[in-house]
Structures are given as structure tokens and as C-alpha cells.
Specification:
single chain, 489 residues, mainly alpha
Length: 489
């Protein structure tokens, strides 16, 4: 597998999906209002939290075993049987508590929640199967198709008066498209499941389930707790801020998705040197965008919420800043966390996750009650600081990788220099329209790149490798051949 090319494809997909999601949330927030948007995000959060018992680490176990070269048909079939059993149990529980679920969500959505969980889990099951076959790049278009269908159909149905259910129907349609597409893209058929292979999957998933639980709780617990302690309008405002911060994770997420099956394969063939150098390089790329985003959120966070989503969402300005800081830690953890799992140490990754989730579960309710919904953001940030430290510690036991501290320092220095300049620009040219906001963001991005590229170490570690990937993707074979002929002359 070509890591650079696959990562680039995933980055393009992540970028497209993030922009679609961002545009969709802007549209939804303007047409639904805080309360209805809050109802949808509670539905979205419930779908995510219910994926914990509906999966228990099975998807990642499937990807892991397939990437190691085990019998593909037997592995997938055994995993599919387990998946269907889990989905049946979860569906029965939701229907048994249908009244309570509807009361919590604020609308009659329990039956649709069952359908959403089933479609989401089946689509992700086959997407992970495709990745396990070392075809990560192929899943990029599938994920983009899911998001495009969801946002596009959801926006259309809202204009037709469907309200919150319009977004839900779009979500179901997106998962359906992803499921069919991933099923057709998977080159593994269905055969006879075996108890031996189920045990092999369970041996990995029993630890990775904890990581899956941690990921789902990290992503959705804040929303669920805010919905429990505060009004649904706060859920909408918090989620808007959360979705804005997700834009900075496009690079680290793309790298982590590509790294897992590749490092898993290298680990199976004892290619330690390749793993060490790849992790060190990936860490430099992972935080390149998340560090300047913190400075940008301090200067422009209020303007982004006010102009794009509406003045009622400005209450989440501080939440936005805190969550942007948290994304620096998450972008780093995207690399070290997936690497710990990929070298077949899910038990250590599980320990890190348990500690982080414990911190979050302890602090979130206390801080939400005492300081409001910004307390949820603070608790999440502290929890992921713990997660990063522990994952890094465990990974260093087995892999001799280096953290690019000096490179990270240059990123921070470039970000501060950018912030000083754009703050001066803002005092002269106030941000009072969306067009002016876009102009300011563009100026900030240009300045950060200019300051960064002026540093030789950044050019060597970030710019030149990126140019090489772009060249390998877009420069034609004829051009390369011509260049080779001219150099021979």
C-alpha cells in the first residue's frame, strides 16, 4: 500500500466531508433553530453511543485480522455473524424503552434510531473490511458519498417542511448509500463462520472494545450529559462549536486511517525501522494545522459563530476555544493511539482509554453543573491530555520513535506571529460580514504558511514531502518520462 497516496486520498475525502458537514450545519442551524438542532444532535449522539454495544471493537478486530493475512472469507463471515447478533440485541433494547427514548430526545424518533444504528454499523463494518484488505484509499469516496447524501437530502427535506426528521432521513439515506457501496467494493465473499476465527476476533476486540467505548464516549458523552442537565438549545450551541473544531483534524484523521493497516502489516513482518520513522514523520504532519487553529479561534471564534450560524450561538465562543485546544491533543493522539493498537497492544491502548474516560466521566457532570456547558469542554480537554500522555508512554516501550519537539515549536512560533499580524489587521478592518471573515481567514492561512515555509526544518519535513505526494498524484507518466529523457541528455 502506498501510504502517502492513500493518506492524500483520505485527506481529500476528509476535507470534502468536513466542508460538507460544516456547510450542512450552517444550513441546519439557520433553518431549524437551536432547539430542533439540539434534538437532532441528541439523536446523533444516541446513535454514536449505541454503537458501543453494537460493535464492542469488532470492526477494528476485523480490519486487524484481515490486514494480517488471515483467511479472509472465514474472518469476515465470522465477524458478520457476531455483528448481526449484537445489532439484534441492541435493537430489542431500544424498542423496549421506546417511550423513554422518545422523551429524552424530545421527539418520536426511537424507531428511526433502530434503523440508523443498523445501517450505520453495517456500512462501517464493510468499510473496515475494505481497509483491512489494504485498500484504504477506496473508502475515501464511500465516506464522501455518505456525507454528500446525508447533507444534500437533509437540506432538501428541511426546505420541504420535514424539520428534524428531514435531517434524520438524510442520515439514514447516507448510511444506506455507504453500506451498498462498501459491500460492492469489498473483494471478500461470505462463507462459513468458524468458532476459531470468532475467538481470534474476540482476542483483539475484548481490549479494543474499550478503545471503541472511549472513542464513542469522547465524541458523544458531552452532548448526552448537556442534554440531561441543560436545555436542548445548549446542546445545539455546543455541537456547533464542536463541528467547527473538527475541521482541524482532517490531516491527523487521514494519516491514522492509513497507518493502522500498514503498521499492522509491518508489525507482522517485524519491520520495526519502517514503523519508527513513519510515526515520527506522521506526528509532524498531524499538528501542523491544529496548532494555528487555536490562535485563530481566539481571534475569530466569536465572529465565526455570529456570522455563520447566528448571534444565538455566540454563547459557545469560549467552548470553541477550549475544544480547539483539545484538538491539538487529539491530533497527536490520532497517531500514537492508532500505532499502539496496530502493533497488537490493544490492552495498553485500553488502559489509556479507561483512564481518560474515567477522568471525563468524573469531571464532566461536576463542571457542567458548576460552570455550564463550557465545563464539558474543559473535562474533555483534560481527559485527552491524560490519554495522549499514556498512549505515548506505552508506545515508547516498544517503538523507538522520536517526537519532533523542535518542529512543533516552530509551528507554535509561526502561529503566534500569524496571530499578532491578523489581530492588527482586525483592528483596522473589522469583521462585520461573511466575506470579510473569509478574507481574514485567508490572510491568516497565507501568513502561517509563509512563516512556516521560511523555516528550513519545516520545508524539509513538511513542504517537500507534500510536494512529492502531489507530484506523484498529478504529474503524468509522459511528463516524468520526458523529464527523464531531458535529464539523460
Amino acid at each position: 500500500m502506498d501510504i502517502e497516496l492513500s493518506t492524500f486520498k483520505m485527506f481529500l475525502s476528509k476535507t470534502g466531508r468536513a466542508l460538507l458537514m460544516f456547510g450542512g450545519i450552517v444550513f441546519f442551524s439557520r433553518h431549524l433553530g437551536q432547539t430542533q438542532l439540539g434534538i437532532f444532535f441528541l439523536f446523533f449522539a444516541m446513535q454514536g453511543l449505541l454503537s458501543i454495544p453494537a460493535d464492542f471493537g469488532l470492526r477494528n478486530a476485523l480490519e486487524k485480522r484481515l490486514s494480517e493475512g488471515e483467511d479472509a472469507v472465514e474472518t469476515l463471515s465470522s465477524a458478520l455473524v457476531i455483528k448481526l447478533v449484537l445489532l439484534t440485541l441492541v435493537s430489542l433494547v431500544i424498542l423496549s424503552f421506546q417511550t423513554q427514548v422518545n422523551e429524552y430526545l424530545g421527539e418520536d424518533l426511537a424507531v428511526l434510531l433502530v434503523v440508523a444504528v443498523i445501517l450505520r454499523e453495517l456500512s462501517l463494518f464493510y468499510i473496515h473490511a475494505v481497509r483491512g484488505r489494504l485498500q484504504v484509499g477506496r473508502t475515501a469516496s464511500i465516506e464522501f458519498g455518505r456525507r454528500l447524501t446525508w447533507v444534500g437530502l437533509g437540506a432538501f427535506l428541511i426546505t420541504q417542511g420535514f424539520g428534524t426528521k428531514g435531517v434524520v432521513y438524510g442520515l439514514l439515506a447516507g448510511s444506506s448509500v455507504a453500506f451498498v457501496w462498501a459491500f460492492l467494493a469489498c473483494d471478500v465473499g461470505i462463507g462459513r463462520p468458524t468458532v476459531t476465527q470468532m475467538q481470534s476476533l474476540f482476542n483483539f476486540s475484548k481490549y479494543d472494545a474499550i478503545n471503541s467505548v472511549g472513542g464513542s464516549l469522547y465524541q458523544w458523552m458531552d452532548t448526552a450529559l448537556i442534554g440531561f442537565f441543560l436545555a436542548q438549545s445548549f446542546v445545539g450551541a455546543y455541537e456547533v462549536a464542536w463541528q467547527v473544531t473538527l475541521l482541524v483534524l482532517m490531516v491527523s484523521n487521514s494519516i491514522s486511517l492509513t497507518l493502522f493497516p500498514q503498521i499492522s502489516q509491518w508489525n507482522a513482518t517485524s519491520s520495526a525501522k519502517q514503523i519508527e520513522s513513519t510515526i515520527s514523520t506522521a506526528l509532524g504532519f498531524a499538528v501542523f494545522f491544529s496548532i494555528p487553529a487555536v490562535v485563530g479561534s481566539v481571534i475569530y471564534g466569536t465572529d465565526v459563530l455570529r456570522l455563520l450560524f447566528g448571534p444565538e450561538y455566540v454563547i459557545a465562543s469560549l467552548v470553541l476555544i477550549v475544544l480547539m485546544v483539545e484538538k491539538v491533543f487529539q491530533s497527536f493522539n490520532d497517531i500514537v493511539g492508532v500505532s499502539v493498537r496496530a502493533i497488537n497492544k490493544p490492552n495498553l491502548a485500553a488502559k489509556s482509554t479507561v483512564a481518560a474516560v474515567g477522568v471525563n466521566l468524573l469531571l464532566s457532570p461536576i463542571l457542567i453543573i458548576n460552570v455550564g456547558f463550557v465545563g464539558a469542554a474543559i473535562a474533555t480537554t483534560l481527559a485527552w491530555m491524560v490519554n495522549v500522555v499514556l498512549h505515548t508512554h506505552y508506545l515508547s516501550r516498544y517503538i523507538d520513535f522520536s517526537i519532533p519537539y523542535r518542529l512543533i515549536g516552530w509551528f507554535a512560533l509561526s502561529s503566534i506571529a500569524m496571530g499578532v499580524v491578523v489581530y492588527g489587521v482586525k483592528t483596522v478592518l473589522p469583521v462585520d460580514t461573511i466575506l470579510m471573515l473569509i478574507l481574514h481567514v485567508a490572510i491568516g492561512g497565507f501568513l502561517y504558511l509563509a512563516f512556516s515555509v521560511a523555516i528550513p526544518k519545516v520545508r524539509r519535513r513538511i513542504l517537500i514531502p507534500t510536494v512529492r505526494v502531489l507530484a506523484s498524484r498529478y504529474v503524468s507518466d509522459d511528463w516524468r518520462s520526458w523529464r527523464g529523457q531531458t535529464s539523460d541528455k
